[in-house]
From TrEMBL:
It is an enzyme of class 2 (transferase). Residues 1-97 form the ATP-citrate synthase citrate-binding domain. It comes from the Eukaryota. The lineage of its organism: Eukaryota, Viridiplantae, Streptophyta, Embryophyta, Tracheophyta. GO terms for molecular function: ATP citrate synthase activity; lyase activity. InterPro entries: Citrate-bd, Succinyl-CoA_synth-like. This is Putative ATP citrate lyase b-subunit family protein. Pfam families: Citrate_bind (PF16114).
Length: 103
């Protein structure tokens, strides 16, 4: 996160948090660490005008994605959340379009 938020330049940035569809990993549990890190870096994320895209599937993914949606509301950072129905390539395309449209 420190590298992604270094030297804010006024342009929007995108952070993609994603992975495959887990077989055994509790997605909600693994998101707890990510949520903690995003809360710790809230001011840097805002200064960098970061937009976050999350995509994950697997055990408890609905609960994990709900936690990420709630986090976006709590810290005031746009977080778009997707389950396994969305493709990583599609989400990356959205992130790129967001950055280029804002440039």
């Amino acid at each position: 996160i420190d590298c992604a938020t270094a030297d804010p330049d006024g342009h929007e940035r995108a952070l993609v948090i994603g992975g495959g569809i887990a077989n055994f990993t509790d997605v909600a549990a693994t998101f707890n660490g990510i949520i903690r890190a995003l809360k710790e870096k809230e001011s840097k994320l805002k200064a960098a005008r970061m937009r976050i895209y999350v995509r994950r599937g697997g055990p408890n993914y609905q609960r994990g994605l709900a936690k990420m949606r709630t986090l976006g509301d709590e810290i005031g950072i746009p977080i778009e959340v997707y389950g396994p129905e969305a493709t990583m390539t599609g989400i990356c395309k959205q992130a790129i379009e967001c950055i280029t449209a804002a440039a």
